[in-house]
Amino acid sequence: MNQSKILKISIATAIFFSIFIIVLYATNSTRPIGEKYKQLSELGGPFTLQTKDGPFSLSDIEGKVGVVYFGFLSCTEACPASIGVVQAAYKQLSDEERANVQFLFISVDPDRDSLEDLYDFGDYYDNDLLALTGTQEEIDKVSSDYGVFFELTDLEGSALGYTVDHSSRFYMIDKQGKLFTTMSHSTTPSELAARIQQLQAM
Questions:
Q1: Cβ within 8 Å of residue 157, ≥6 positions away
Q2: Which of 60, 68, 63, 58 is nearest to 30 (CA)?
Q3: pTM (predicted TM-score)
Q4: I need a surface site. Which of 100, 169, 185, 190 has the fewest CB within 10 A?
Q5: What is the DSSP letter of 112?
Q6: Complete DSSP assignment for 1-22
Q7: CB 80 within 8 A of CB 71
Q8: Angle at Cα 189 formed by Cα 185 and Cα 195, nearest 5°?
Q9: 10-residue averages of pLDDT along the chain (202 residues)
């Protein structure tokens, strides 16, 4: 084997292992490059946040499958798209399956997303969506617990003043209230529905 072939094989092998390492990080962490990574086993945990009707804890849905998403009401791209995926996934579930899953939308913008607005937002989706928020300290803690990245970004010349850059993932909670896995924003409705059914069968 000549040196040219050996070099090509070496380069191909290096590329393969580089891609493998990137995929491994992407599937086992929820932070963007440059942020501190957390393994799935380190994520999750109980939380209590607020609704217009009072405190709500993750333990309140024990026995059901939970789909948790972190976003904010003035989000114009990732959040509406992700909610659309949840809606489409729910349509693929039976009435019994829908009765045993709860979608929790946690606002990472407590300064602008009032409890009243979050209630109206959740009410629009009937019982399929429950919108929660809390103090900045509470949001910071639950975001850290679940490995959620978000930061405020100024919008010069915009009436909004700022937007919130945030990671976009679905956090799948099993019937015992434990984080089972996360699913990316590119998850299809069929994939999400299948995961819900899997967790309900466990």
A1: none
A2: 68
A3: 0.74
A4: 190
A5: T
A6: --HHHHHHHHHHHHHHHHHHHH
A7: no
A8: 90
A9: 49 43 39 52 91 94 94 81 91 94 92 90 80 92 84 54 64 95 90 97 92
Contact in structure between 177 and 104 (CB atoms under 8 Å): no
User: Do 51 and 118 touch, CB atoms closer than 8 A?
Assistant: yes
Angle between helices 78-90 and 189-201 (to 10 degrees): 60
Long-range contacts of 8-13 (CB under 8 A, 24+ apart): none
3 state DSSP class of 92: coil
Structure tokens at 201: 């069968």
**Count of positions (residues) in the chain:** 202
Looking up tokens 């009072």, which residue turns up? Answer: 54
Say which residues have a Cβ less than 8 Å from residue 170's Cβ, sequence separation at least 6: 67, 68, 69, 82, 85, 86, 182, 183, 184, 187, 192
Q: How far apart are CA 132 and CA 102, in angstroms?
A: 13
Place of tokens 């900045």: 136
Backbone angles phi, psi at 46, to 5 degrees: -70, 155
DSSP assignment string, 131-149: EEB--HHHHHHHHHHTT--
Bridge partners (DSSP) of residue 168 are none
* Helix/strand/coil for 26: helix
DSSP class per residue in 55-75: EEEGGGGTTSEEEEEEE-TT-
